[in-house]
Design goal:
This protein has 82 residues and is mainly beta. It contains no helices and seven strands.
């Protein structure tokens, strides 16, 4: 499960069976948005809008961040568009 709706700038992958965080990354602004995953050409991607939120006291921004999930032992690749 992917989640970023916290009072920090992190996006996390959480194992729903154990509740443990298995991956995280720092977003350029608060990630008070719903992450989206999609598949293209057999590869899974994760996208989130990092816009921040004044009530959550996270930095305001206007970034769309996309990650390509690993296809094996490789690390997650991050791309950011602003």
């Amino acid at each position: 499960m992917f989640i970023a709706a916290a009072t920090d700038n992190l996006i996390r992958a959480i194992d729903i069976r154990t509740g443990k965080t298995v991956w995280s990354d720092t977003l350029p602004a608060g990630g008070q948005a719903t992450p989206m995953t999609y598949e293209a050409d057999g590869r899974q991607y994760l996208v989130i809008m990092a816009g921040g939120h004044h009530f959550m006291e996270t930095p305001i921004g206007d970034a769309v961040v996309a990650y390509a999930l690993p296809q094996g032992p490789a690390a997650t690749t991050r791309r950011e568009a602003q």
